[in-house]
Amino acid sequence: MPEVFNFCAGPAMLPAAVMAKAQKEFINWNNTGCSVMELSHRSSIYMAMATQAEADLRDLMAIPDNYKVLFCHGGGRGQFSAVPLNLLPQGKSADYIVNGSWSKAAAIEAKNFGDINVINIRETHDNGRVSLTAVDKWPLSADAAYVHYCPNETVDGIEINDIPDTNGVPLVADMSSTILSHEIDVTKFALIYAGAQKNIGPSGLTIVIVREDLLGEGKGNAQQATPCIMNYQTSANNNSMYNTPPTYAWYLAGLVFQWLKELGGVKAIAKVNQAKAELLYQTIDKSDFYQNNIEQQYRSKMNIPFWLTDESLNEQFLSQAEQQGLMALEGHRAVGGMRASIYNAMPIEGVQALVDFMQKFEQETK
């Protein structure tokens, strides 16, 4: 059987070294005679692991002390509700930048909780190429409660590399598919959230990094109707353990953080990610058999959609790819085609295997 490389957009592959360590520790973690998933989240040994995981994430992202790091339930969609419930007081509005499927979904959900100003920045040219309005041209509201955007759209393969200047308005980012993939200045953001199942760990865990001055009903931010499980202040007050957190996912995330630090941190993995993306995009661009319709400056480095010019070959492509151990390459149902998600855990060998297959398939099919 060929080596398997999983290109799924999420839940995505985890680092092989992390999976091997978790397997070894599965029924006897830290010589407790128990699995970590069986231990109380309030036990001293589990809390020490949780504290270390947070410390490692803070180190990896250079998160300042005036930001809380929360380990939450609910995935990214849970934060589509939690963000306006915590940050959108009555009588205020929030700007939502829409450049793809997930930012659109976030805006639709936020409308359930307050006044939302939707700003569409996606542009499709006559030649079919997709581009975006430059960040300095966004028509932002000077008095918005916050500005929400999604730097990387997994479905559409669109990435916004420049951090917008919001002139003091709190900036909120859904980084589910790009967190830890390259260095960012956390201080440019008021709140960052990320579902774990792409670059952090298994599904079921969501990371929230929130500046302390945004917390609390006393500051006029959190709505009174905010459920306790979604209230950032409640979570912060209880060290993300107001109720039982997703304990095993938290443990696995901690292993991923350790793995990333051993590799040299975010700066080191960013170089690998750049090389992976360049390798795949160069293969697509040099061919008239494959195509990508995103303008170069907005191409995602994590999620690379591509289409066969002869779409009648799609099923054949996918079938043969799976036979070669190249899994989950079918594009999202909303856009079709193919999609290769190449998060941190995807080694460059996996992208090379995909490129080799693509070139071979093209030669044999033309």
Give an overview in words:
This protein is about 35% helix and about 15% strand. With about 375 residues, it is α/β, with parallel strands linked by helices. It folds into two domains: about 15-260, Aspartate Aminotransferase, domain 2, CATH 3.40.640; about 265-365, Aspartate Aminotransferase, domain 1 (Alpha-Beta Complex). The protein has a seven-stranded mixed β-sheet.
Count of DSSP strands: 16
Rg of Cα set: 21 Å
Instruction: Give the termini distance in whole angstroms.
Output: 27 Å
Percent strand equals 15-25%
Question: Largest sheet, if any?
Answer: 7 strands, mixed
Helix content: 25-40%
User: Which H/E pattern describes the elements?
Assistant: EHHEHEHEEEEEEEEEHHHEEHEEH
CATH C-level class of the largest domain: Alpha Beta
Name given to the CATH architecture of the largest domain:
3-Layer(aba) Sandwich
Count of structural domains: 2
Class derived from helix and strand content: alpha/beta
Q: Low-confidence spans: pLDDT under 50, at least 5 residues?
A: none
- The strand order across the widest sheet is 2-12-11-10-7-3-4
Q: Can you identify the CATH superfamily of the largest domain?
A: Type I PLP-dependent aspartate aminotransferase-like (Major domain)
